[in-house]
Each structure stands twice: as C-alpha cells, then as structure tokens.
Structure prediction request, 250 residues.
Amino acid sequence: QKKEDLQNQVTDCATKLQRAESLMNGLGGERVRWPELSAALGTEYLSVTGDILLSSGVIAYLGAFTTNYRTRAIDAWAELMAEKKIKSSENFSLSSTLGEPTQIRFWTINKLPNDSFSIDNGIMLQASNRWPLMIDPQGQANRWTTNMNADNNLKVVKQNQSSFVRTVEGAIQFGNPVLLENIPEALDPVLESVLLKQIVIMGGIPMIRLGDNNVEYDPQFKLYITTKLRNPHFPPETCVKVNLLNFMAT
Prediction:
C-alpha cells in the first residue's frame, strides 16, 4: 500500500512538473513582450500631457475639417508645443490616445467606416459635451447612428415635418435618442435650449424649455443632427452650440 501511495505521489509530481514546464514555455514570449510594453508605456507617460493637449484641441476645433487640414493643424500645434518644452508623441493619433479598441470595434460592426478619419469622428462625438451636427452627404453618419441606436427606440425626424416638435418633446420626456436628419443651414430656434442644455430643477425634477412648454428632462435623451449639404455655411451662433463633425469621405 505504501509503495502504491509513493508511486502515485511520484506520478502526481511528474505531472505537475510537466504542466509547469508547458506553462513556462507558453509564457516564454511574454518575457520579451513585457519589457517592450514597459518601455513603450514609459515613453507614453512622458508624452501624456502633450497628447492630451493635442486631443483637446482636435475635439474642440477640428471636427468640421478634412483629414489633410487636421493633420496640418496637429503638426503646427506639435511644433509650438515643442518650442514650449511640452513633449508629445512623435506620431500622435487621437484613436491611440483616447480610443478604446472594444468601443471602436463596436462602432465598425455598426457600419462606421474603418478608417482613422471616421474613427476620430466617433471619438470626438463621444468625448464632446455638445450634441453633434454631422456633415454627411454620403449618409455614413446617418447609417451609423441608426445602427448604434437600433435597440434604443430611435426617433428619426426632419425639421420640416409637422410632428417635429412633438417628437422631440416626447423623446426628451422618455429618454429616447433623436436623429434630426437633412437639416438646412438654419436650425429651428425651438431647439435653442436643447442645444445649450439649459436644464433647470423645478420641484426636484430636471426640466427644459421647448418652445412654450417646460418638459421633464430624462438624462438618457440624446440628439444627433445630420445634413446632406456638402459645404454648409452654418452661422457662428449655430457652430458654437454644436459639435460640428465632417463625415464627408474625400
């Protein structure tokens, strides 16, 4: 009996050693990858201030422009920062700085074009506090927005429809997303308080004014605006109220 127990212990020990050897061999590649990753993170740590500063500038100012103009502006900003001793990544990218791979993958599954220009637009839309107004002559942003909100009872409406105000009012109350599509160069003044998010608390309940009515505001409410105009000239008072994004493929 003792001999059999000893044999079982030896067999068990040999099995554990074999498994440990297999694990070590499997992790052999990680021995190389981990130091490389550590070195890369060290470089990124030194550049994080400059990268965030560039990202903030892109989100605040460059959404309406083409990819070539964005690149030139970023290069000019990076040179100015270098003069001020503010370090940034040599090959700055908004998607590598603020993007999340799982989120980007979800966007592309929902028909966002899988190119850096469109992905940057998605990041700018998500990171901005303003509602997006998307220049979308090819319908890419419209399709992506529709797919992203397919399970959220998206309300699609045009500004010239008689049910326009009633649809927006209902969506605000019940927390539904609204896609206001094909707008001209002027937005209806009734949306003023919605664009500015002028929410007030009345009796402990968040309210917003829409036209002549005070409407209970659900924080789940979202507003997306698109235009098919290729080169719209929105007035300055509109541009400062929205997050203007150019989805036009060039």
